[in-house]
Amino acid sequence: MMLDDDGRLALAQALFKVCGVMVDTKDPDSLRGRMDAKYKLMYEQTGAKSFDLKINDQVVGNYSIKFSKPKDSEKHSVLEVKDFYSLAEYVTSIPDDVLRKYAESELAGFADWYFFETGEVPDGCELVEYVKPAVEKAYIGGSLRVKPEDVAKALGGQLTQGIAGMLEG
User: Residue 25 phi/psi, 5° resolution?
Assistant: First the structure.
């Protein structure tokens, strides 16, 4: 049976809708959700991170476990203005007129700039150290790679029956 463009579009849209439900990664009850759970469990049991996908004993793609990258903790220092009046008084004691004009109009920005230029903490300010905690490697899902031409070849004459079965549920 040959389909015209209207028929091909209707078939493609029907397949798109059916397949979208089947491969929904946010629904744990979808086919993809169940397979994600299966491969995560297999990883936990065996340590394997990649699995072949087969149809009729022919490899048609693979499923790979994905992880976030671990991150070391990070320390950074921030100059916090605790007392604007003390900082303003400190700024007026700086001899350079241009520098003082900038400082008076932008006190908090000036305090940061001045500290990083001179290493001196202005009056009314405090150097506070923050630590961003380390992040361990974590499971974030799976990556699925399938070659349509390999699927068609592996299904051979069963391809149209497979598509019909999908459309009929």
Answer: -80, -15
Confidence of residue 60 (pLDDT cuts 50, 70, 90): very high
Query: Degrees (nearest 5) of the Cα angle 126, 132, 137?
Result: 175
What secondary structure, in 3-state letters, does 103-114 show? HHHCHHHHHHHH
Name the one residue in this structure whose structure tokens are 């990258």.
Answer: 69
Order of strands across the sheet that contains 50-55:
50-55, 58-67, 139-146
What the block records as the tokens of 151 is 């699927």
Distance separating alpha carbons of residues 14 and 151, to the nearest angstrom = 19
**pTM of this structure:** 0.58
In whole angstroms, how far apart are CA 117 and each of 104, 105, 111, 132, 139? 17, 18, 10, 25, 43
Q: Which two tokens mark 142? A: 């799976």
Quick one: CA dihedral 52, 53, 58, 60, positive or negative? negative
The two tokens of residue 43 are 């990883």
